[in-house]
Predict the 3D structure of the following.
Amino acid sequence: MSKMTNTKPDSEKMSASEVYGKTLSELGEKHPEIVGLSADLAGSTKIGLFGSQFPDRFFNAGIAEQNMFGMAAGLASAGLVPFVSTFAVFASMRALEQLHSDICYPNLNVKIIATHAGLSFGQAGSTHHCTEDLAIMRSLANLAVMAPADGIETAHAVRAAYERKGPVYIRINRGFDHTVYDRPDYGFEFGKAQMMRDGSDLSIICCGSTVWRAVEAAKMLEESDGLKIRVLNMHTIKPIDKEAIKKAVKETGRIITAEDHNIFGGLGSAVAEVAAETGRPFAFKRLGVPDTYSIIGKHEDLMAHYGYDENGIMAAAKEMMGRKPYTY
Amino acid sequence: MPLTTEERLRLEEKAHELRCLSVDTVAWAGSGHIGGAMSAMDILTILYHKYMKIDPKTPDLPDRDRFVLSKGHVGVGYAPLLAELGYFDKELLKKYNHTGSPLGMHLDSLKVPGVEASTGSLGHGLAIGLGMALGARLKKEAWKTFVLLGDGECNEGEVWESAMAASHFKAVNLVTIVDRNMCMIDGPTEEVMGLEPFADKWKAFGFDVLEVNGHDFKELAFALDKALAAKDKPVAIIANTIKGCGIDFIAGDYKWHYGSFDEETKARAKASLVRYKEARLVAVGLASGVAAGPLPAQGKEPAQ
Ligand SMILES: Cc1ncc(C[n+]2csc(CCOP(=O)(O)OP(=O)(O)O)c2C)c(N)n1
């Protein structure tokens, strides 16, 4: 696979999916009940690392995602802990009803690690872009939803998924992410937003690929305009950290969300639901894919095109700071 | 009608030219699904250059024949064919995969003239093709629908749901072709998810099955003629092919499902394609001389 030409490629490091494969293999050594499934994407999603270490506990279902999700349901009901991996577009849409009825409804212990999420498979076009999964997955009761920011956080998310009983969906990207965390002991906690920077002027709430970009935007705005911006990495989209959102509304009064997803139904919507329930006035803007099917191209170009890269986030923050304060 | 010698020569020449253009396209795109593009190229060539009624200047001609590339990942093989026919400017191939380009890994029917369906998610194409065929029948139109499937793709349940429906609705104006290159991404088809007895499966679903060498135009023409004359049962053509056909260092290697060429490997690939073309002309009796080596892809004799 060709590497993404990010502004700062970090190709010596492992991609998020490689970290996933390695973490799952480590978990597999300790927990014999973990099994793996893929649908002819063992190599691409890196669950194949687990598969080659534990061939007896790995099933390649062939190019048959619906069958794979059904098999995972059966394996979970037999007491095993299936980790299922395919591209996000197939995990969230091709096998959706199997996920809904066979896994989430009976609250089975299946972990879905979906790669190539958002626009990270940008050159593959609309049949492979996946800017709907957070909206879809958020609406499935019993299912936890996560979008880690980089490889280190992916390892935390995968372990947290194992620890949690019940179904979990994790979306990660194709290729290499910018490194957000340089060490693992930064205090990751499932369901708790990670404060990347504190500030009182405005909050940027982000997840996955937008975390690095929001942090960059906040740094640049501090340098250029002296703005104090709070950046919250909402790696767990569901259950969402309501307290962190409410505090952001109360303490900063201005909220921008940024996600590699349609602006409908994903992180922005989840934040808006909680924020609106505070009953307080606040300025609000969602950044993401503006309810359209994306053009073809490189991931970072597409994020820039739709205005949720560091420059887009900066522009939105400046625009919001220039608005008149809200009057009741 | 069997192909004339001139037609065979013309198709051999065209397929070679397109295989080379496909290698260039992979280089322009940065990477691409070269293995499955090479296995499908002879099938694509004979459909578009011999059988299909089309007008590249009027891509939406109402009574055109329809083609659905169900194994949609081989855009780097399909786009050169469409460009070369004149559906769009060949120069666009140089922008393949570039940001904002209409050409991405999987060809998009909303962006690329001549493409009937935005495929790429495997398993969808036969159902769409069946709908088109039923549409033609309802409208009393004579045009035909051709669908090209990957063999790995035939793991998908939807393929078999469509197969069941195609024979149930007696869609004899639908021609189903499977590119049986024996490979998928994670390995050989029979190791990842066994398909055999593959022909028997299609037969059990109500198809007449023709197994041919997918790199032999005579055999492909024989099968397509039969399929187009189908009366009671739809026909499935299992075209035995070689993934990466014609490029010696990738042929038959499932790991070359997707890859990239640098200048050096691109030159090696092209040199190999020239040798392959020459050997093939000798092997099929269109040129004299000694074939450069045994040709891969010996399909079974067409059933009479
Ligand atoms: C529904 C779906 N699942 C998975 C993929 C990823 N994928 C792309 S190509 C491919 C293998 C296809 O194998 P085959 O159909 O045999 O094609 P060929 O060997 O002719 O290239 C897979 C699994 C996909 N495109 N669609």
